[in-house]
Write a structure and sequence with these properties.
Oligomer: single chain
Shape: globular
Distance between the termini: 33 Å
Radius of gyration: 21 Å
Structural class: alpha+beta
Largest sheet: 9 strands, antiparallel
Mean pLDDT: 83
Strand content: 25-35%
Number of helices: 6
Number of strands: 15
């Protein structure tokens, strides 16, 4: 039986101050953040986020010599699974200690020698926005209204096509529940925020903007492409598709439509964790799988 397969995501952390000025973190930042959290007097750092209990810490895996950040989302008792022995009826899950809790894990490690971080999480783990909020709250950068964002690593070829586009005639975006939508101007950002508010942040927000069968004219399609560039760079999306209007030649005397799926170009690596899907996934096991994912990422993208 094969091990359980998980997806490893790659991000570039960026700091944004209260003026909106962005600063991409250098290579040494992850180790500095790790040291800062390790030296914190609290063993675990608890940060509430939109009604969720988010807790984390910084540790070192001695078997792989990997520094990592752990961010867990406490699972409410109402969402606990049942327990069944053999063919008996399912019963409630009981933990031995009244202070014990079920926690959905997420792990962050550095892509060594780069400013990028790799992340893996359980199916119901903390959302990326919750992880960003935890990082901001526990890091020194939380002072003075600063915040940390995780920018998805996207293959450059699709971004280059988007930068060459003279417009967009259709876009389709889906973001997961709890994703933080930046308070930026623009129709796309506003529509995504409205969709989130309508669902009280508990549902995925899906947005489709289209000119239909008509030929886009004026500044509308150009503005849509400009906003899409900003959204792709700033918002982790579950789905991001667009029909771009690309010039036929360098002189842009004519143009043609081309469909692009950006979600396929957000770089991830699929890894096997463990040899058997029924075995518990220990930290050394997870770290070993992340090392493999990072090696493949580096070969393909760096």
């Amino acid at each position: 039986m094969s091990g359980h397969h998980r997806k490893v995501y790659f991000f570039h952390p960026v700091e944004i101050d209260h003026f909106g000025v962005e600063k991409f973190y250098p290579v040494e930042y992850f180790d500095q953040l790790h040291s800062s959290i390790t030296s914190h007097p609290s063993e675990r750092l608890d940060v509430p986020f939109m009604g969720q209990a988010i807790s984390g810490y910084a540790r070192r895996c001695t078997s792989t010599l990997m520094n990592y950040l752990y961010i867990g989302r406490k699972r409410p008792v109402a969402d606990w699974p049942k327990v069944r022995e053999g063919r008996a009826d399912a019963t409630d899950l009981q933990l031995p200690n009244p202070d014990a809790a079920l926690e959905e894990p997420a792990f962050l490690v550095q892509v060594r020698g780069t400013p990028y971080v790799a992340a893996i999480r359980s199916t119901s783990g903390a959302t990326w926005s919750a992880i960003e909020h935890w990082l901001t709250s526990v890091a020194w950068s939380s002072a003075g209204g600063k915040k940390i964002e995780l920018r998805p690593y996207v293959r450059e070829d699709q971004l280059e096509r988007l930068s060459r586009a003279i417009g967009a005639s259709r876009i389709e975006l889906t973001v997961e529940p709890g994703t933080r939508i930046p308070d930026k101007p623009g129709h796309i950002y506003k529509a995504l925020r409205n969709a989130q508010e309508a669902g009280a942040y508990g549902i995925s927000a899906k947005l489709i903007l289209s000119f239909g069968n008509s030929t886009p004219t004026g500044d509308g399609s150009d503005q849509m492409a400009d906003e899409l560039r900003d959204v792709i760079a700033n918002v982790p999306t579950r789905k991001a598709k667009a029909t771009l209007m690309l010039p036929d030649d360098e002189e842009a005397k004519g143009w043609h439509k081309e469909s692009v799926d950006f979600s396929k170009d957000i770089v991830t690596q699929q890894v096997k964790v463990g040899e058997n899907e029924n075995e518990l996934q220990s930290v050394p096991m997870i770290m070993s799988s992340m090392i493999k994912a990072i090696e493949d990422f580096a070969k393909q993208n760096l």
